[in-house]
Amino acid sequence: MTAGPLVAPVETAPSPGWRNRSSRGWWTATAIVLLPALIPPISLAWQVLTKGTGTTLPLGRLFELFVATVGLTSAVTVTALTLGTTTAWLTTRTDIPGRKVWMILAALPLVIPSYMAALTIIGATGPNGLISSWLGFEIPTPYGFVGAWLALSIFLAPMAHLIVSPALRLIDPATEEAATGLGASRRRVFFTVTLPQLRPALVSAGLMVGLYTISDFGAVSLLRFDTFTRAIFTLYAGQIDRRPAAALSLVLMVLALAILFIERRSRSRAGYTMTRTGRVRRLLETRGWPRGLSLGFLAAFAFLSLVIPISVLLFWLIRGLSAGIELGTFWDETVRSMGVSVAAAGLAALAALPVAMVTTWKRARLSGAVESATWAIYSLPHITVGIAVVGFALTWARPLYQSVLLLVFTYVAMFLAQSVSTVQDSLRRVSPVLEEASRGLGRGPWQTLGRVTVPLVSPGLAAGAALVFLSVMKELPATLLLRPNGFETLAIRIWSSTGEGFYTRASAASLALLTVSIVPLLALTYRDLSD
Amino acid sequence: MTSATDRLTIRARGLSKTYDEVVALDQFSLDIWEGSLLTLLGPSGCGKTTALRVIAGFEQATGTVEIHGRQVLGPGVFVPPEKRRVGMVFQDYALFPHKTVMGNVAYGLPRGTAETRVGEVLELVGLTGLGDRMPNELSGGQQQRVALARALAPEPDVILLDEPFSNLDANLRDRVRRELRLILTETRTTAVLVTHDQEEALATSDLVAVMFKGRVVQVDSPAELYSKPSDPWIADFLGDADVLTTTGHRGYAETAVGRFKTDLKGPAVVVLRPEDVQLSIGETPNAVVVRTEFFGHDQLVTIALNGGGRIRSRIGPRPSYQPGDRIRAKAIHARVYPGRT
Predict the structure, then answer these.
(1) Rounded (5°) CA angle A471-A472-A476
(2) Is the CB of A179 less than 8 angstroms away from the CB of B96?
(3) CB contact under 8 A, A177 and B58
(4) Whether pTM exceeds 0.90
(5) Which of A156, A225, A449, B35 could form a disulfide linkage to A148, CB 3.0–4.6 angstroms apart?
């Protein structure tokens, strides 16, 4: 499931066999992976606490940013969850024509990074925009809250869709039948049986969408809505004193960790693991207006989230080319983007193995802490990670400052959780008995690892690598802060071109980025459908 | 309505259903009498679960179903499951994972009266005091009892149980089965149970309906069914059975182990239960011991008849026979069926 890596950690199912394996090597490897990743955020806190915040941040300004960030996050979370749950329900539970195609179409916009979403909104509206030229009158560009809310809601709804869909599939259909058999109406079944069982998925989806929104830098910057991330970048870029940006980053980090903490506390003791597979679910039969309405909704969503963006990109590209605008080549940018993405993806998959191993062991005392640390790092807004790494490199690791090596290591740290969770997912499906059988047949721990465990978890390793690849391709704020001078990637090119109003160049780079992303995405989607 | 139909809880007639050209039900007909426990027994894939789900209303089919004389399925009639007053116990219990035991059991009850009734039912199934547990905090046997309690709570006209013991381990299964039987008898609940385990069917039920390829092929009490299966396939399905071919002639079918009354003329098969085959030493031997399997309380002796054919004999733990022993075999009971011509 693509949802695996997006979902926050789920409590490990008991598998006593995992406990008995020799584990010192794995713990050492985990420490080697995880400790360096923890250093920059900790060093940021230390620097802010010891060196102060520099020019004082006015409390009023801080409050403004807080309200804007939390307001946007709440609005986007509610909207994206509603949209995503609706598309998930329609495509998993009803018999609408082309169900599987809609299922993929509803997930696809996830490849569109937030800054590209903002670019297409800007490109579609305004005096020269595509929609304006369709309609014949001008639609003003929705700068500020409305634009950011629209862009993020539409492009994060697929995340909710991807997390809620498998949860809907996993609910034991017999529980719904049992409720019906006990006299409950369809409405009552939905609200008392279906929805409560979806709660963990909805909480996970809310967490992911919420974290993504407070960390978002691209959309709020291009659509000019002042949240923490935009303010941090402005402070960083505009002042020689880096302390105010660092202080603000620390505040945002705390906010992100608070959201993560609230999510983890809100889990109840009910065991949602009682789902069983192998039962056939009857799809809800739709006819007449409910079917029309469902199809209309899905079509409208696909229009907004796919047709408009792609049309806008092509529109600007064609308009620019026909006006004779020099495009230049994107070959160098593409190679750089792919190079760092492939490197980070490979390293993240490798690094995920020990972390997934020790966190899958039941009752290993430290595994809970390791799991929490992995997710805590993942939840940190990328711009704050960038600030932290810059601060760390300038203070303690000067030779690494603005090096590709540091950039790649930062990517691995930021996206490690994605590959860890896909590997965990695979590991949980591997019966520990298989490894015991291998040991019993005279194979040592290393041979067992190489011949049994790794081959069995290879789908998880591959999926994790694919996810990290996609994330790094799209990553913007940390890349902006950490890249060596002149190291332009596709994401950087799109961002700077949009900011300067070069929509033709931005759309060409966007199309290049989407093209490169499509292979790993299709691989992941295919895996999802055959699951 | 006649007094006979008053006591009829479920009357299913001519139910047919196909999934993608696979026949699940083929003119399935069945009567279930009030207060009785009927088992639908058949090999996997014979349509027994489908029959149950059609009766409960979770599946559509052609044909008719009446519950207490009220038509719930028929041409142009379909009463939804929530209005059928049918309780269902699912194979994996399907307990609501987000509700406590009490919440599960109270689900089908109107608000207000729920609390006392939940207490009653939990006491009935022996779960008093566990009302606040979550389903995942219960053992398999306890979950099964919660599922039963939940189905019993609204006092349905009939309870349908889909392979209710298949998820329990062997030693627990026998106990739970006895308890279930007791509870159903005590509450005079009409029940239909689905299983593929013939011992379970024979030990639990008042009546057993044997299903094959979507239809009911025989309905009888366990004892009748076991001793008088209507064809050799059913005989074999219900327990160990050996077949000898012979011919019917002048009112008898003659075999090496005895002659049995029959009206058949021409080719015939004689079906023997191992427990009906007795062995003795001395006299004129007519068979040789091939192998013995010792089970403690009894043993199964496979013998080769001198005239050809192998049959088995189930006898007490003594005497012990060795392969090669020459013995005399005699069948005290057998069923004769028409043979293939």
Answers:
(1) 100
(2) yes
(3) yes
(4) no
(5) A225
